[in-house]
Amino acid sequence: MQTIVLATQKGGSGKSTLTISLALAAIRAGHTVRVIETDSQGTLSNWKRRRPHAAPIVEPIYAAREVEQRLQSLGGEGVTVTIVDTAGGISAATNSAIRYADFCLIPTRPSIADIEATAATLSVIRAWHKPFAYVLNQTPIRGAARLAGAENALSNEAALDIDDIVARPIIMMRNDHQDALSAGLAVCEYAPGSKSAEEIRDLWRWVEARLGNEAAAIDEPIIEEIVETPARLPAMAALPSTQNDSAFFLRAPARS
Ligand SMILES: Nc1ncnc2c1ncn2[C@@H]1O[C@H](COP(=O)(O)OP(=O)(O)OP(=O)(O)O)[C@@H](O)[C@H]1O
Ligand SMILES: [Mg+2]
């Protein structure tokens, strides 16, 4: 089973919306998908109540220990992809989800304030040595210059090459996402022929390709020695790493 965690401290960046979109894209790509909601705000549970279809199952789990246990047991139930929606901020449950993630996605709007707000989440992800990518979301249709600035800011924040840490495609701001959420649907159901649905399908393909790459790249467990207390993680992340970050996170060799 592959576990994908959507996390960022910043509220409203699209964690829940993208969880739903990617879950349905993964189902349509042939996966058996489970969705875990660790945010007591309940966006996914509410969406599920409006939803006219049974799949995917959404499991609300708010306690960190239970998140860990569930992520360890789901693979034995035939689930091939689990997607975890987390709350804004840094919590013990988010830390647990990241600990058991195969890949972390950090949704962010393309503004400097939003990008700067991802730093704390990135620290936790790095403390657990997890592969990650940003998803530029709610990107205004017009504004190529701002977008280029945002990508550069992300690249600087992570000290890595844009092409390696920004998922493709970028996701534009489109009403379909909000309308689908209201209807208990995902965009690929609500507006299957739309650009919004196409972007999400392509994003899933990108994530799946990256998951395959990472599965081949990671060959040793390295998280056991890391202390579990979330409050200590950012400080730990600042310590010198025993591994070259880009070499670990990314299969592709670092570019000069
Ligand atoms: N690409 C998009 N285009 C238009 N609207 C979007 C897009 N992505 C998300 N939204 C909308 O932005 C709002 C916030 O999104 P969402 O609830 O997914 O964010 P979140 O990160 O889960 O927030 P929170 O931290 O509060 O849980 C929602 O109304 C959602 O429908
Ligand atoms: Mg949410």
UniProtKB/TrEMBL annotation:
CDD domains: ParAB_family (cd02042). It holds the Pfam family VirC1. InterPro entries: DNA_Partitioning_ATPase, P-loop_NTPase, VirC1. Transmembrane segments: none annotated. The lineage of its organism: Bacteria, Pseudomonadati, Pseudomonadota, Alphaproteobacteria, Hyphomicrobiales. PANTHER family: COBQ_COBB_MIND_PARA NUCLEOTIDE BINDING DOMAIN-CONTAINING PROTEIN, P-LOOP CONTAINING NUCLEOSIDE TRIPHOSPHATE HYDROLASE. This is Chromosome partitioning protein ParA.
